[in-house]
Amino acid sequence: MQVAKNTVVTLDYSVTDPDGELVDAGQEPLVYLHGGYDDIFPMIEEAVHGKSIGQSVIVKMQPDDAFGEYDATLVQVEPRSQFPDELQLGMQFEGVAEGADDEDEDVLIYRVTEIADDQVVLDGNHPLAGMALVFTCTVTGIRPATADEIRHGHMHDDECDDDD
After folding, report:
1. What is the dihedral of CA 23, 43, 12, 38, to 10 degrees?
2. Burial of 34 by CB count in 10 Å (0-12 exposed, 13-18 middle, 19+ buried)?
3. How many angstroms separate the CA atoms of 162 and 110, rounded?
4. Cα 30 to Cα 40, 138, 163, distances in angstroms
5. pLDDT tens per residue, range 85-108
6. Is there a contact between 112 and 120 (Cβ–Cβ < 8 Å)?
């Protein structure tokens, strides 16, 4: 069987920067619904299309192909008093980007990147924003997607109770 539209694909993968420094060891396999469902970066999906189990690909992605360019406007400094006492670096909070004029704007996840005495620095960028990445993967599984998976546009696992 080959990777094709409406197949569920399992990939063993790792991600490095262009210098070969490990960014993500891919400790858990990546499983997604293939065929333009936005479950995986389009460049990776295109590279594995038509591959069989055991075949590997290497995809070099610029920031725009992956997590986007780093956006300095997504960094905010907030008063320390607005946060819980047990605040730690790396904690995440939901918020709307400063200057957003629509309450329905996409909610961003902000990471705490710095804690000073009376201020907290929050970064709404993905941790890998602005980085070129090298995605190396091997196809380890391919199966036909179920009708429910195709209808919902994503792969289901045993715990999925998606009713939409």
Report:
1. 100
2. buried
3. 27
4. 9, 10, 23
5. 899 999 998 887 666 555 556 788
6. yes
